Amino acid sequence: MKICIVSSVLFLSATVVAATSKLLHRDHYAVHEERSQVSPRWMKRNRVSRTKILPVRIGLTQNLDRAEEHLLDISHPHSPNYGRLWTSDQVVEAFKPSETAVQAVREWLAVHGITGVVQSENKAWLAFDAPASKVESLLDTEYYEYEDARTGGVLPACDKYHVPGIIQEHIDYITPGIKLMAPVGGDAAAGDELKRRMGLKRRVNKHAKAPLKVQKQKSGDLLQQLQLASNDSSLNTCDVAITPECIAALYQIPPGSLANPANSMGIFEAELQYWDQEDLNLFFSNFTPTIPNGTHPFNKEIDGGVATTTNLSEAGGESMLDLELAYPIVYPQTITVWNVDDIHYQTWANDTYTWGFNTLLDAIDGSYCTYTAYNETGNAAGIDPTYPDPQPDGTGYNGTLQCGVYKPPNVISFSYGGQEADVPIAYQKRQCNEYLKLGLQGVSFLFASGDSGVSNYPEPYGDDGPTGCLGPDLNIFNPTWPNNCPWVTNVGATKVYPGYTVFDNESAVYDPAGYPYSVNYSSGGGFSNVYGVPDYQADAVATFFADHDPGYPYYSALAPDEPNPALPNVTALAGDTGGIYNRIGRGIPDVAANGDNIAVFVGGEFSLSGGTSASTPIFSAIINRINEERIAINKTSVGFINPVLYQNPQVLNDIVNGTNPGCNTIGFSAVEGWDPTTGLGTPNYPKMLELFLSLP
């Protein structure tokens, strides 16, 4: 017996020595990150002093393997755990690095004499301060000072660094490391440089997803015509202008009666999109007299955001469209406008067109401010705004970044976005993870699918060339972002065409350039190049290809994970296949709603508006109404709705007519079942309500 004990002790000692050896000896190290090139903006200077104290942050690999499983467990209608929402603490606990991973990295640091190591509150990273000489020994590297030619600021960085192979899987990235992205010195030109590196492009105008507003001639006559029709309780003019009465008839929405104070509908606004009371009053007086004048949303103004104005000339076409569509559906329930970023950033000439989504996510989930994933911790310097933001003209927000200061709404509608190919892969995926985490907590995110069919806007309205498409031949379809994320619901657009009524089937929206908009307008749709088809959508997409193959050549590839600022390389994905769309990508959109000839008041004037940015607040408001009914019978909010809808397409009105042209093609066709033009179809409120009320 004693001999066995001694043998065991000797074996364990040998094991510990072997493990320690692998943590110490360079033979067991592997390159973890290596820079391929340096921008001319950065000049390599002297070695960092050996005694200089470096603040080191080790981003730990997140436990994301079961993320999709967790979300589907509470959102799939066949799951016994449907509706059992998670708390924010449960989310942090589930996705934090494993104790094994944390302990392994700590042991490595201890072997090298690193002390004073602390772990972040969200468990995502380890931090310590140490002399440069000790950090160089730890990482088998050399640190140099890199000077920013634009700002004069200096950063410590290395060309590559190493970690032990046995713990490499536990480490996402380490700073200071190879990254040279931060705009040191605060010069706005830094954002301009990053914008060029990212290739982010402007779309039609400053408000890329702003509604395709058009002032109809003789709008006063049209308004009088609509008022007369309304007085007669007639729906005969819905092919001319979509009013609240038309929307209620299209989707069988009765007047609301409930208003739980915990269920205020959320609407996201940015980019100088202010709402004003005078326009709301004009709209209520003309179209919804049951809503009293003076009714207005609550404002959540994040990091210096400004939500409202009393100057009619500053009224935002997007904000007024969103509110004037949502109020008739949710009233007497309230609406909360979530406006992000200070005036300096909202008017920034070097705008990176990421819209401030991260600013919102920081404010409604404090852990996101320091969340580590895909080689990024927190907001991306040079892409996202940086606070405090002191500006001599007073347009900046001087406070610190607002983290976790608000409880998220149950539903939030987004009418903003861009093209997937213009946003760094790591940036997209880190943000997409956050939508999943908040979905676990019962938040529904709905995004507009885009207004240019399978492409971006062509020149001169967009910057993706004469076709708005990708690839060397400018013919590859150009999907949108962030609605490409599998954990959000994206909304396409339909239309009541002239000569048809609200009692006829709608069709996919399509207005050719000049009739009446300056560009082609059709429902954004297609397939992602970043995300694969999620499980909940797989059957629907497979059926579409089996029964309605579009006949275009295709490729089957997804962009690999790469650190910022790497963009999806669609040309490389397509290779020599000749394909013009990705056969294995997440399908866009999920659903649809009316998005053309919408009656609005903006700037004191009546006009008609359109865009999937109209469709989205309609569908979002309906989901908010359903939550209202569930809360009234002590059930949870519906949260991530896609699995329920894909399992029950019969609760939507299938759209089987129309296309979404682009890239010198007709795009995709609206067909029976799901399609990449109108998704599963438009809402049928009574059927949707019955279904969601039947779920736990």
Architecture overview:
- By secondary structure, this protein is an alpha+beta fold.
- The protein has two domains: 23-62 and 97-180; 219-694, Rossmann fold.
- Helix content is 29%, strand content 18%.
- The chain is built from 18 helices and 29 strands.
- The strands form ten sheets. Strands 10, 11, 12, 15, 17, 19, 20 and 25 form an eight-stranded mixed β-sheet that branches. The chain has a four-stranded antiparallel β-sheet with strand order 4-5-3-9.
- The longest helix is centred in the N-terminal third of the chain and has 23 residues, at 2-24.
- The N and C termini lie far apart (59 Å).
Number of domains: 2
Q: Would you report the number of β strands?
A: 29
Radius of gyration: 27 Å
Euclidean distance between termini CA atoms: 59 Å
Number of helices: 18
From the 3D structure, determine the CATH topology of the largest domain: Rossmann fold
Mean model confidence by pLDDT: 89
Going by CATH, the homologous superfamily of the largest domain would be Peptidase S8/S53 domain
Beta strand %: 15-25%
Question: What is the overall shape?
Answer: globular
Helix/strand class: alpha+beta
What descriptive keywords fit this protein?
single chain, 696 residues, alpha+beta, Rossmann fold, 2 domains, 8-stranded mixed beta sheet, 29 strands, 29% helix, globular, disordered N terminus
